[in-house]
Specification:
GO terms for molecular function: tRNA (adenine(22)-N1)-methyltransferase activity. It comes from Jeotgalibacillus salarius. The chain has 226 residues and is an alpha/beta fold. Helix content is 46%, strand content 21%. A seven-stranded mixed β-sheet has the order 3-2-1-4-5-7-6, sandwiched between helices. Helix 1 (4-11) crosses helix 2 and helix 8 runs antiparallel to helix 9. The longest helix has 23 residues, at 180-202. It starts with a helix and ends with a helix. The structure holds S-adenosylmethionine.
């Protein structure tokens, strides 16, 4: 049974695409995509030996070795330009996902679609996408096991999409939808930030703290505005 989080990533894959799942761990996502007849060929990339072996074993167990190629390597180095149409990266922090995309930019030639699921700091991914000619065409937010996850679908664009600070932080699509889970996430975040602000007010003032307070105040204002 695939987690709801990975199912949300899989839902953005259209039949006939070829997929590389980077940081695949057990290769649950590519295995699901093939079993659901969404894709016939996929690559599972993993950099760490243990998870790499888990992926190899899972693919064997599911008898999918003809459909899924498990490759060991760092980030996008496991794919060749033009080899896949879609790249998925899930279950890592936003800054790590952005770093993988940035370092592997040259491998993204021919890739039409990125499906990204950051556990934290989706803002760094949205910023990277905006800076590198990708448009956010859909987003989803969901709760599973008391954790809230965001999924971002991005496609290539020639038009420059300039997101506001509000959209970068909260997500252009999620901001429009304002679902209950979205409200829950940002109300919680706001409470946490206000607590930190209060602690900062009590601390001894220094120039660096002043700057941090300024940044925090800006973030609080953005969330309050939403
Ligand atoms: N994608 C799966 C999911 O969402 O359930 C697994 C998530 S797991 C928390 C993150 C995986 O990414 C780990 O197995 C880790 O070894 C792998 N990983 C981290 N950095 C990586 C990189 N630069 N290249 C490939 N894999 C990486």
């Amino acid at each position: 049974q695939l987690s709801q989080r990975l199912k949300a990533v899989a839902d953005y894959v259209e039949p006939g695409e070829t997929v590389a799942d980077i940081g695949s761990d057990h290769a649950y996502l590519p295995c699901y995509l093939v079993k659901a007849n969404k894709v016939s060929q996929a690559i599972a990339g993993e950099v760490v030996e243990g998870p790499y072996q888990s992926a190899v074993n899972q693919v064997k167990e599911d008898k999918l070795t003809r459909h899924i190629d498990v490759r060991k390597g760092n980030g996008l180095t496991v794919i060749q330009p033009g080899e896949v149409t879609t790249v998925t990266i899930a279950g890592m922090g936003g800054p790590l996902i952005s770093e993988i995309l940035e370092k592997g930019k040259d491998r993204l030639e021919g890739v039409q679609k990125l499906i990204l699921q950051p556990n934290i700091s989706a803002i760094s991914i949205r910023q990277w996408l905006q800076d590198n000619g990708w448009q956010i065409t859909n987003e989803k937010i969901l709760e599973e096991d008391r954790k809230i996850y965001e999924v971002i679908l991005a496609e290539r664009t020639t038009e420059i999409q300039k997101l506001s600070q509000l959209e970068l932080l909260l997500g252009p699509v999620l901001l429009k939808e304002k679902s209950d889970v979205f409200k829950q996430k940002w109300e919680h975040e706001l409470v946490q930030l206000l607590k930190i602000m209060k602690q900062m007010e009590m601390a001894e003032q220094s120039p660096s703290l002043k700057e941090k307070k300024k940044q925090l105040r800006e973030k609080i204002l953005i969330i309050e505005e939403a």
